[in-house]
Amino acid sequence: MAKEKKVEQITDMEVDFAQWYTDVCKKAELIDYSSIKGMFIYRPYGYAIWESIQRQLDARFKETGAENVYMPMLIPESLLQKEKDHVEGFAPECAWVTYGGSEKLEERYCIRPTSETLFCEHFRNVIQSHRDLPKMYNQWCSVLRWEKTSRPFLRHREFLWQEGHTMHATAEEAMAETEQMLKVYADFCENVLAMPVTKGKKTDKEKFNGAEATYTIECMMHDRKALQAGTSHFFGDGFARAFDITFANKENQRAYPFQTSWGVSTRLIGGIIMTHGDNNGLVLPPKVAPIQVVVIPVAQHKEGVLEAARAVADRLKACGIRVKIDESEQSPGWKFAEYEMKGVPLRLELGPKDIEKNQCVFARRDSGEKSFVSLDDLETVAADLLEKVHQGMFEKAKKNLTDHTYDAETLEEAKRLQQEHGGFIRTMWCGEEACELKMKEEAGMSSRCMPFGEKSIGNKCAVCGKEADKVIYWGVAY
Amino acid sequence: MAKEKKVEQITDMEVDFAQWYTDVCKKAELIDYSSIKGMFIYRPYGYAIWESIQRQLDARFKETGAENVYMPMLIPESLLQKEKDHVEGFAPECAWVTYGGSEKLEERYCIRPTSETLFCEHFRNVIQSHRDLPKMYNQWCSVLRWEKTSRPFLRHREFLWQEGHTMHATAEEAMAETEQMLKVYADFCENVLAMPVTKGKKTDKEKFNGAEATYTIECMMHDRKALQAGTSHFFGDGFARAFDITFANKENQRAYPFQTSWGVSTRLIGGIIMTHGDNNGLVLPPKVAPIQVVVIPVAQHKEGVLEAARAVADRLKACGIRVKIDESEQSPGWKFAEYEMKGVPLRLELGPKDIEKNQCVFARRDSGEKSFVSLDDLETVAADLLEKVHQGMFEKAKKNLTDHTYDAETLEEAKRLQQEHGGFIRTMWCGEEACELKMKEEAGMSSRCMPFGEKSIGNKCAVCGKEADKVIYWGVAY
User: Fold this and answer.
1) Element at B41 (helix H, strand E)
2) Does ipTM come in above 0.90?
């Protein structure tokens, strides 16, 4: 009963996917709304997922040699304007500070929508010689973009992210960094978040404002829409020239350094929800779940049950597993539903009969599968099951991606496949923006990426029929 | 020679303490200036100290049951105005956002100077029953206060901090939380940062805008000025009433919850610099030093030296010590000066003769003391020396605090002691704000705190001579 009541609170995803998504965000207590449209409150459970992502990504960044810094949140308008393409892209969605206290400012400042300009100003101060290169910086912060529409985690006016900014002596080094960071993101998504990705290059139309090239990881959601989950940009020396950043190279000549930037945001949490969630709520990848195992004592009023449950919880904690024991007076059924909603990967049930038999019950959140486990094997089985949950989640998501990636030879076919199945539509493309625009207009799909190392499917552009040597993915994107 | 050259870069603290401080911030590469006055760039070495503080404080907060969240950075003007004392205190130093993109906003938003109002708005949504209490939240973020003057770490327009905000069912619980968090701060300062503190209560004049009571930890700097290093506030139910936050208590009656907030900021880094630094630069407490041991190979071109130095570095890393080996082509003298400037607690020197004798040289940053150590004892001696450096730093700072805390019975005596020695002047105080104002006007000192549990020194107010039962500390504050 209790369980049904809790589950009733969310809409089925087959009925209304968008509503299901919002329900999960609210009922799993990930997020709350504030009084400013598009600015959200990250609640403890949602923020704990971000902390877990941060901790693990940060360690990976540092392994590559990146160092963390913190830049000011405000950018003078004149500074933002130094790089033409960049300001054109961002100025329309900046929030502007015009007063400091009661004083009108001489120049207005925008709250950073991204920090390339601030990093460039600083790089100009700290880069003089080739010995100062590479500079590999990252910052964890929030940025602000004054969007018209919003949705929890997917599109906020203010969102949390990290932005890496690096400077290198040569274009080759900068390109290697751009590619390396895309690999770091892809590996993290697949091996930590259990989210399979498609790696590739963005078209010129879709690349970052001011970049020479943008690389992306694209994921497929349950509703078969695409989510751009992370990007890595190669800037060439464009910003360096605009900001007059030079260094003395080994031949003691002035040269411009080459730049990259790369970022992921709390959008990843939206990706987790829409990749793994189900009609009972959230399903969290074990490696970022704030609670990996929830211990539910059954018939907890009976002698010895709570003590035994606590002992089991302590043993799991001792081997580094994140455990919560729920000793509250709610019924086991209510508790089952509650932690299913919150996506806890493993539930451990322990009642008087289990204690008698020196066993417990494990229930997997991803598959619902239950198993009786001897308490002698508690630690090894728990660790093994967490790994299996991760694998199970990854394979399920991978199947969704593979099953719903379709090849098409014409725009009509692409359009039909998208309408019938959703997903990614793979075609050849001639490289003309006109064809991209036509695909968008007629089939409602934007280009997602030109994937790395995939076999071509013919040699004609699906849109114009002219010769084409580029494989491209199309999709309906968040 | 090289060493002298490096050291020449900073002013002696006896010559000009303020200039010495700025020199250290710049030359130790902690901070850089941005193009907006009062907004600073936290460089990798400075930010790494903050990350170390964050990691350790965060663990201590979580042990008390606090959970991290993230609130929006913007506060609608109408929301800020809900609590009268609070808005009066903060509105004059708010930065105001008036445009979103090209659109003028209907209501202006300030960038958070602190987030009580935002937390209250959220508490109103999530607190309904006594079962929802206590709520113990913390956030790590930056805040903005449009100050007229600025100084690295001590006074920024934008600074990094944490702000804890908690709600409790009873005044007693909230008061216990206020006191507990002050203890957490004091313990952290003394046992991690090696900074002795004086704990006490602020006068009404000096308390936080909107608080019923503010508790503080006050530290004494090298120049004998006071630094307020952390505060913890008890709000009573004032904000709860202003924001209409109520809960059903155990008797099922509506009641107002009781609130606290508490915070420390990157100001702590300023405190570290001015408590421990010397004329060779920074001196970092081992527990937050980004590099705890720097390994300097001597005569590194000779066969076997680099290999031996790397082996030593690896052994120290393996036992969890943060180690850097400097293999660059700079001279050992240059390297010695460089890592002294950066305040690395221990330097390990290793040359051909040491290798022959199976030994190395350790030099302590705090005392300059050198010792020859058998490589057989490397790990234990390193750990032991780091502990000794911490102790040595704490005792030196404690002596500064004790030696420069003076008792006075009259305003004249207090004034003379401050002029002659600086430091804290301890007197009795009647509790009248008029006397506080007079002390400020005539002796240039503000009240720092009414210390906990200190013996009274007479029974007459040092300013007005009337009966007094409060011990109070006065000082010149940063």
Assistant:
1) strand B40-42
2) yes
